[in-house]
Amino acid sequence: MSDKTTNSIAFVAEGTIPESPPPARETGVYKWARENLFSNIPNSILTLVALALIYSVLSNTLPWLLNGIWTTSSLAECREVLDGKVGACFSVLSERWNQLLYGFKYPTEAYWRPNLALVLLLIALAPVLFFDLPRQLLGFTVVYPFIAFWLIWGGSILVPVIAFLGFVAAAVVFQRFGKGSFAAGFFGALVAALVVWKVGGFLIPEGASENAMLSSVPSRDLGGFMLNMMLGVTCVSLSVPLGIALALGRQSSMPLIKWICVIFIEFVRGVPLITLLFVASVMLSYFFPPDATVDLFLRVVIMITLFSAAYIAEVIRGGLAALPTGQYEAADSLGLDYPQAMRLIILPQALKISIPGIVNVAVGLFKDTTLVSVISMFDLVGMIRGPILASTEWNGVYWELLGFAAFLFFIVCYGISQYSQWLERRLATGHR
Amino acid sequence: MSTLTDPPKEQFQLSMLINDTRYRSLTFQAIAALVLALAIWYLGNNLIQNLRAAGLNISYSFLGDPSGYDINQRLVEYDSQSSHARAAIVGILNTVLVAFLACITATIFGVIAGVLRLSNNWLISKIMAVYVEVFRNIPVLIWIIIIFTIMTAVMPGPREFRGAEPTASMVLDLFAFTNRGVYIPMPWFETGLFASAGMNWVLVLAVLAGSFFVMRKVEQNATKKQEETGIRPNTLFIGLAVWILPIVLLLFVMGLTWEVPELKGFNFKGGIKIGGPLIALWFALSIYTGAFIAENVRAGIQAISKGQTEAAAALGLRPGRIMNLVVLPQALRVIIPPLISNFLNITKNSSLAIAVGYADITATLGGITLNQTGRAIECVLLLMLFYLTASLLISMAMNVYNASVKLKER
Q1: What is the count of structural domains for chain A?
Q2: Among residues of chain A, what percentage have pLDDT more than 90?
Q3: Mutate which of A258, A260, A271, A302 to test chain B, going by most B C-beta atoms within 10 A?
Q4: What pLDDT shows up at residue A1?
Q5: pLDDT score recorded for residue A432
Q6: Euclidean distance between CA atoms B89 and B105, whole angstroms
Q7: For B84-185+260-405, CATH number?
Q8: ipTM here
């Protein structure tokens, strides 16, 4: 009995049996496919239909894509090279690349300017989009609009400098007087900026833009995808402050201000953007002083900004409504007046809630910038439908061009919406 | 002894206008009213000066003048001698037509894609995710142009249907897809009960409506019986009879026949012609907005907590009935409000018709009429008025529906 461990009893297992692998149909790809693709008969049919669909799409597009020609100079030449085979004429993209991106009038030797403006834009946006970056970078964001204006339009550097100085003066005055009374600071800042701009206007010598460091480019020469980007970025950044003001106005207890805001917001949201663009192109000039010539770009920027401001105002109103009343009451009980309560307590929280919504509006607005092609501005779509498809070399190259436009917009919009989702996940942690 | 004195009699001082909260809001509103009045005066003054300089005035009498242009796609009688107002009405009807069609198909696409995106089938859900992302992130104008290009540049011309060995053929010998539009068979009545075709169709609709009401009564009786006895009488056959018999009988009596499009000369004749621009606009709006609706539907279904499904399953309901009786009625409450705004977006985006030459209100009143008469202000104002009214009507109708499916709290 003492040596039970020896082989005295034949049928007791000594050690563990080595693990045998799971049955073949329960592992790896096979199991995954069975559970996810062929779990029952309807599912299997769906899978087969989907596979057939994918096959038919790929078998039609892949040869076309891979067989693409990049180097010919016209459609006829491209067809000759293809010699009856299936293939895309991507040479329209390589040949008209600059037109697609910058329009057909922007001076060729100045292409580096919008390129640089784009790179700087990414640097300026980084601290706004990613909170972890050092806050000092915001300083560059503040001066960026003036640099970008000078880079793209060129002309005398004094114009953006004086515009910037006007804002600096406004900020200084507001810092000085805004502490005591918001209204005094606000109106003081307004007056200071106006004075600086008026005085600065006299300082700019006549013809300063002729022999400037950067040659001046009129707005009507802007075009291509650059125009879409410029309209999108400008209008979104201008419409956020306006949207905040409208949202606060709509929440206001003063009936007159409330109703002005309500009527404005509901009116703008009730009409299509294209009618507002008609206003910009045919009607708005009637409302400016007779001798003023406001160029089409500026008129379009005004209308698109008003349009997106109404939508952003509704998003922010949602954010304001989502705040518990306790926040408002807490601000009151601390003795804060209205501007202080908004600036220190309410808006930081409300804006945080509404950021994903604002990003959605921004994506929609960026897509809507293609509508300017309808009022004969040559943005990316306008370039494709106008000068490029109408030219004798490239008449009939639809898919390459439209596919390229769709691809560019997809990249930008998908990128922004992925950012928005990342931001939503990031901000959501604050509520737990 | 100190006495309690009355609180000092308040006297109105000028500084109270800005420092006293009772008066401050009045001050601000007065300033706002002043600024608003000044702005209106300034803009109005500019307008008057500009109009005088251009020798124009504001007048709507041009609406009565002959328009002088033709419209291909029209639902009512119209020719180039008709007035601009008539052209605008043709445009309004075309806008309503494309918006209505696109709302229906977008909802269908959206619901299918949204439900399939939640499918257990990995491949299907991924395909639907790709659909949603691709269509949401590309401007609708580009989609309209792409589909319009397919309709005009890829579809065969009518002449390719001709000859001994045609390079194109009609689908099922009923539908012709050409680069001038799609031709589909048109139903008409040989021995209609009324002289006008319109009255005959009204009769068909009336019979269908009658069937609907009879059927509802039958269902109500069945429900009553079920509540009394616990057994639901089978209404399937009664239902089939109520729906099918009367309408088949009516169509037979009126001699329903189909006019199939035929190639005559250089073009197809007969049948209903759906123009390429209409199809481009309709289809592009449907797939684009369908992608947004799909996301709403998915969000709505996912918003129903899992406990609801599990509770329904614990009661012994089958999956189909869980969806119908428990999940969908609750999900609808989440889905409807964004659906309303999607319908509004379709209506507003239908104004992009001008890019492909579909004669909607923007293309007639805001396009050709504006260019011919030069009445920019009047045309744009009328255009905005129409869209505002349409938006308000849609949101009102949908809000009524929304209120009827809302959670009834006691």
Answers
A1: 4
A2: 24
A3: A271
A4: 47
A5: 41
A6: 24
A7: 1.10.3720.10
A8: 0.87
